[in-house]
Specification:
- The protein is of the alpha/beta class.
- The chain has 2 domains: 2-106 and 179-204 and 218-232, Spore Coat Polysaccharide Biosynthesis Protein SpsA, Chain A (Alpha-Beta Complex), CATH 3.90.550; 110-178 and 235-263, no CATH class.
- The chain contains 9 helices and 12 strands.
- The protein has helices at 24-32, 50-62, 82-91, 119-132, 139-145, 160-169, 187-192, 207-218, 240-259; strands at residues 2-6, 9-18, 36-42, 68-72, 76-78, 98-101, 110-116, 150-155, 174-178, 182-186, 221-224, 228-230.
- The strands form 3 sheets. The protein has a 7-stranded mixed β-sheet, sandwiched between helices. A 3-stranded antiparallel β-sheet has the order 8-7-9, with helices on both faces.
- Helix 4 runs antiparallel to helix 5 (139-145).
- The two termini are 36 Å apart.
Length: 263
């Protein structure tokens, strides 16, 4: 991993993981966050870890003593002015752990549910998923071995059929929103969590679920009005390797739910 920094105002520092600091996505970010301190974390290849990249940038960001650190994907585009966003953000008192932007049709916000189910139900769920998406064909047998107890269901509230079907079928133990493309964490929250946002054991999935579930449990967050566009997986593609990692992440998150978290 390598850091590339652009000087600017440090009340808010923007941390952006990217595969190419000179690519088109990064160039757009430089314009979008102009006049603010930007830290690009460049990393790519088979060992890329989104959570580790973010944490690496956050560690450097905290050295600048900001009030907030913004975690931003590189594949986003401007709608509202970033300076108005910053002005409104710095007005929030007292400073919360996290600041989330209110959902809009331009900014994808996903609804996440954690449900506790019998192992048979989990196997049925993943057998259906394996039938629809061949990448998941190995999930059922391995999840049976590890006695999966919790399912994590993510749906888009803008896709009413999928979202309403999940609401009808499942009664969640926990429900919260994911905003992995763009969100704000306070310096005090990060310092209280070892100068990290993400659990680096997760590899390119579930690290956001884990973080936002923690934010929900601590119940110290605010919303802010701000519109920003996001492309869909502009710099990350789903493949067989991602599926294997997703399995490991699923098992590990189940372990954390059993050992570390309370509903």
């Amino acid at each position: 991993m390598r850091l590339f920094e652009i000087n600017g105002k440090t009340d808010i520092v923007f941390v952006i993981p990217t595969a190419d600091v000179n690519g088109n996505y990064s160039k757009c970010c430089k314009l979008l966050y102009k006049n603010w301190y930007i830290i690009f974390v460049q990393s790519k290849g088979p060992n890329f870890n989104f959570g580790r990249s973010c944490n690496f940038g956050i560690k450097r960001a905290l050295e600048l003593n900001p009030k907030y650190v913004v975690i931003s994907n590189d594949d986003i585009y401007k709608i509202d002015d970033i300076n108005n966003f910053a002005k409104n953000l710095l007005k929030i008192k007292p400073i919360p752990n996290a600041v989330l932007i209110k959902p809009t049709d331009k900014k994808p916000v996903l609804n996440c549910k954690i449900i506790k189910v019998p192992s048979v139900t989990a196997l049925i769920y993943y057998n259906i998923k394996a039938f629809i998406t061949p990448f998941y064909k190995f999930y059922p047998a391995l999840l049976k071995k590890y006695n999966l107890k919790y399912l994590v269901l993510v749906s888009d509230p803008n896709k009413n059929k999928e979202h309403e079907l999940n609401r009808f079928i499942y009664k969640p133990k926990a429900e919260f929103r994911l905003q992995g493309n763009f969100f704000v964490l306070s310096r005090s929250f990060l310092e209280a969590n070892g100068s990290k946002a993400f659990d680096e054991t997760f590899i390119n999935s579930f690290e956001d679920v884990d973080l936002f579930y923690k934010i929900k449990l601590e119940n110290n967050y605010k919303f802010i009005k701000f519109k920003i566009g996001a492309y869909n997986s502009g710099t990350f593609r789903f493949d067989q390797l991602h599926a294997f990692r997703g399995l490991a992440n699923t098992i590990y998150f189940n372990y954390k739910l059993e050992k570390n978290y309370k509903f």
